[in-house]
Write a structure and sequence with these properties.
Keywords: Membrane, Transmembrane, Transmembrane helix. The protein is an all-alpha fold. It has 2 domains: 80 residues, no CATH class; 145 residues, no CATH class. 54% of the residues lie in helices and 3% in strands. The chain has 11 helices and 3 strands, in the order H-H-H-H-H-H-E-H-E-E-H-H-H-H. The protein has a 3-stranded mixed sheet with strand order 1-3-2. Strand 2 and strand 3 form a beta hairpin. The longest helix has 33 residues. The termini are far apart.
């Protein structure tokens, strides 16, 4: 409910001035100038702090300004020497299909990445240098062994093919009867293999047990294809190589054994896995399209394949 006013309202007290704006106005110009001087001084001090510390107040010296630990530097110098020697040895593997199995470049590249860490500790630096020395010594040993194997000492067909394929880096032994698993097919025997623990050695039966040269050649080429398949996989971090992509497409009936047969057939330009006396392989003769795929694959991994 509202009531009419009988008298005009009495004037109230003037509004109370509060806040920094009113305080500055009440203090006069001298006070205002004083505040600005204080503000300028504060800004100058802050600016000097920022400029002297790279724009990050309160931060310490940068990593680049920190002194290098002499022990870390010594280990990295050792690593550099081992790395240079390693790559010098690796030049003997240029164009060799077995190179990824012999040198395992991805493994050494991981060492190089670790060595680049700016926060590398003494222990980590020592570990990097130590492993570089181990890898170099391992490669050096394999290079020396390959140089000795480059001569076909037995004069056999199979050793000649293996020596030519791997330039001595792939070994051959005629001990398939003991080194290879027995065949699961009734009436068949295992004529060769590459074991899981040693991808650089081909195991065959003595040449005298093969009734014809074409059979010897087909068997050794089949086993070399397995060496190349493993080398192909070794070049990839997830160990899934081009060979796996070919098999996933359904080529060679999805079988790496039949792919190995196809490599041997393509190499020898044969269209049969048998003659009137004996049969070898896994019963599938690859077609022209698959042979073209074999040729492309072989070219990518430097596997020898006559035109």
């Amino acid at each position: 409910m509202q009531y009419p006013q009988a008298f005009p309202p009495a004037p109230g007290p003037p509004p109370r001035r509060t806040g920094i704006g009113w305080w500055l106005a009440g203090c006069g110009c001298l006070g205002l100038v004083g505040v600005f001087i204080v503000a300028v001084v504060v800004l100058a001090v802050v600016g000097a702090t920022l400029s002297s510390d790279g724009g990050r107040p309160g931060s310490g010296p940068s990593t680049a300004d920190r002194p290098v630990d002499p022990a870390v530097a010594e280990h990295l110098a050792t690593f550099a020497r081992e790395r240079d020697r390693y790559y010098q040895l690796a030049t003997e593997l240029d164009g060799n299909p077995a190179a990824p199995l012999v040198a395992d470049p991805a493994r050494f590249q991981r060492l190089e990445e670790n060595a680049k860490d700016p926060q590398l500790s003494r222990f980590s630096a020592q570990t990097v240098a130590h492993h570089a020395g181990l890898y170099r010594a391992e490669l050096e040993k394999r290079v020396e062994a390959a140089r000795k194997r480059r001569v076909n000492r037995t004069g056999s067909v199979t050793e000649g093919i293996v020596d030519q394929a791997g330039d001595g880096f792939i070994d051959i032994r005629w001990d398939a009867a003991s080194a290879c698993p027995a065949s699961k097919r009734k009436g068949w025997q295992t004529s060769g293999c590459v074991t899981k623990g040693d991808a650089l050695t081909v195991h065959l039966r003595p040449e005298s047990e093969y009734h014809a040269e074409w059979a010897r050649r087909m068997v050794v080429l089949h086993e070399l294809a397995h060496v190349y398949q493993r080398a192909d996989r070794r070049t990839f971090e997830d160990r899934r190589g081009r060979v796996d992509r070919l098999l996933a497409r359904g080529l060679f009936q999805g079988s790496e054994e039949k792919m190995a047969d196809c490599y041997a057939l393509t190499h020898e330009d044969r269209w049969s896995l048998s003659d009137q006396y004996v049969e070898t392989g896994y019963g599938y003769v690859c077609n022209r399209s698959e042979r073209r795929a074999i040729r492309r694959w072989a070219a990518r991994i430097d596997a020898p394949l006559p035109r």
